[in-house]
Amino acid sequence: RSRGRLRYITSRASVAPTGATEPRGRLSHIFQRAAGPPWPYDGLPAARATCWNSPERAVRIGERVECSSPNPYNARTMARFGIYKPTPPIVLLTDFGFKDSYVGVMKGVIRRICRDADIIDLSHNVMPQDVAEAAFVLAASYRYFPEGAIFTCVVDPGVGSDRAVLCMRSNKQLFLAPDNGLLSVMAAESAPDEVRRVTAEQYFLKEVSTTFHGRDIFAPVAAHLAMGLEMSKLGPLVRQKHKLRLPKPVRTADGRLRGEAIYIDQFGNLITNIQRATLAGSFDVPGDRLEIRIKRRKVRGISKTYSDRKEGELLGLVGSSGYLEVAVNGGSAAQLLGCEKGDAVTVAVLQGTSQ
């Protein structure tokens, strides 16, 4: 208690029965003040426990804590409780794949600096050096992560050059990436609050290679941010220099909507650059009165699910990312059609249907 304000966590400890060797205790609750200005520790869901002979670890309210002690009846040797604030997740997006050790080494560096790091793999299967694909994956995913998430994006054909490393704050999240346009697609959807060039070398590894900035710069900087480092300490405010110019769908003179395949997922689905809103704003007919053309094949109607068509049959639908895609029920549209990214996709009203 400090000046009448409760500023500590209490525990309810109970010693073990006669003859036992492990006293036990349970974190009962975190005190909260009923009135007064906000206090940063109010309502925290966790605390730390430290036993006399075991390393400190995080515990939840109501969790039983056990540790051995030379004196099983001395509850004071059982545990100490302190404030614990869970670290924000570090979300990794790379083109490293899993054959080599690159991803594991990045995680090792993060954990050496931030032992409690919560690391999430968004994807490591971006096509090598394909910045546009990485930008699409990030733009389609970031909104599903919590506030405070630290996206660490390493698709970096210019590694070792004079290209900058950026840290961007947007939507109450942080984004680390090379200044090669990777962040520009997401930034176009939601204007960033702040962009800084990462120049503070004290947050890098001591030896920085010219070929693995994911390990030597991105991973340690992300770890320091997760531990509470202020973004302002990373370097000066800047503007993104490089922006991707991704293709956009266009309306043709005969009323068709022409786009292209921009991403092929693990199932061989061809995801186009035509969004749901673009479809709705281009045609005043139901989806079943539209026709998709790709590689001299016609797909009639926009389905709602993959199973709307027979197994092995081509179909079109708006996928979970909000973009029109061409798929095969139980198969791969990319293999069936021999398609690649960049192949044209057109949508038109079926003949005989008026808008």
Count of strand segments: 20
Strand content: 25-35%
Mean pLDDT: 82
Computed over alpha carbons, the radius of gyration is: 27 Å
User: In sequence order, what are the helices and strands, one letter per element?
Assistant: EEEEEEEHEHEEEHEHEEEHEEEEHE
The general outline is elongated
N-C termini distance: 72 Å
Helix tally? Answer: 6
Largest sheet: 8 strands, antiparallel
Q: Give the class from helix and strand content and strand pairing.
A: alpha+beta
Q: Kindly state the percentage of residues in helix.
A: 10-25%
Q: Stretches where pLDDT falls below 50 for ≥5 residues?
A: 1-47, 49-54, 67-81
What does this structure look like?
The protein is built from 6 helices and 20 strands. It has helices at residues 102-113, 131-139, 184-189, 213-226, 276-282, 333-337, and strands at 9-14, 24-30, 46-50, 57-60, 64-66, 80-84, 89-94, 118-123, 150-154, 165-170, 173-178, 194-197, 250-251, 257-264, 270-275, 290-294, 297-300, 314-318, 323-328, 344-349. Strands 13, 14, 15, 16, 17, 18, 19 and 20 form an 8-stranded antiparallel β-sheet that branches. The chain has a 6-stranded mixed β-sheet with strand order 8-7-9-11-10-12, with helices on both faces. Helix 1 runs parallel beside helix 4. The N and C termini lie far apart (72 Å).
